[in-house]
Amino acid sequence: MLYGRPICIIPIAFSDKTGLPSGRPEPMVFDLVDPLGTQKGEFEINTLMDYSPRTGQFQWSPEIEYSFAKGHAIELELPVENDSLSEYKMALQGTLGELLQKRMIHGWQIIGRRENDEKEFAAEALYINDFKLSEKWSTMNMFGLRRTRFNEEGDFVGLTNNSVFYQYHFRFAVGIELNSEVNNHYNYRLTPQIQYAFTKKAFIQFGGGPSQLNDEKRTEWLILPV
User: Fold this and answer.
1) Domains, the chain, ranges and CATH?
2) Strands 43-51 vs 58-69: parallel, antiparallel or unpaired
3) Per-residue pLDDT tens for 169-220?
4) Using an 8 Å Cβ cutoff, are 221 and 6 in contact?
5) Cβ 185 vs Cβ 214: under 8 Å
6) Whole-prediction pTM value?
């Protein structure tokens, strides 16, 4: 998961990702550990690369994801800024079940992180709801909280992620994703995106749009491949 980075380039993603038979698209900016309902033993490696032409800062975030039980997966992510490891991130995700003749599936995700510079811990907890509106249209929505630090300086931040997708072809989908953070101010990132599967084990997600997640007074354009 990336937050508030200006521009990213060059995607790398390889997986043996099945999830639900419907093959529903997933959000790109606030990504899932694995698809809800994934089978046991699924394994994925991907890398997100991020470059800011304004600052010259380059970030890449390798991720390793593994489903240790049906509908449950764990992820290790190591965000690197330039040549320094900025933080350690672990995520755990579970599936609560399917409803409405399997048109809806829902679950949860818990994220923990340790920031290396300030040696502080933070955490997030989210509810996830994926609903298939029709054969082509689907939506995914997440709601949760972030604790910025576990000390007297820590705050709670409300989090939402709302996405709508149109699956044009079994290999190709388009969508739009809105990430929102609410504390004393409302900050957002809006990301139109495309998703294309080269094979069952290799795919790309690519998108761009305005973001105010890093600075409430400035909107920047970003590109985020996965």
Assistant:
1) 12-223 (2.40.160.40)
2) antiparallel
3) 888 999 999 999 998 889 998 889 888 888 766 778 887 778 787 665 444 4
4) yes
5) no
6) 0.82
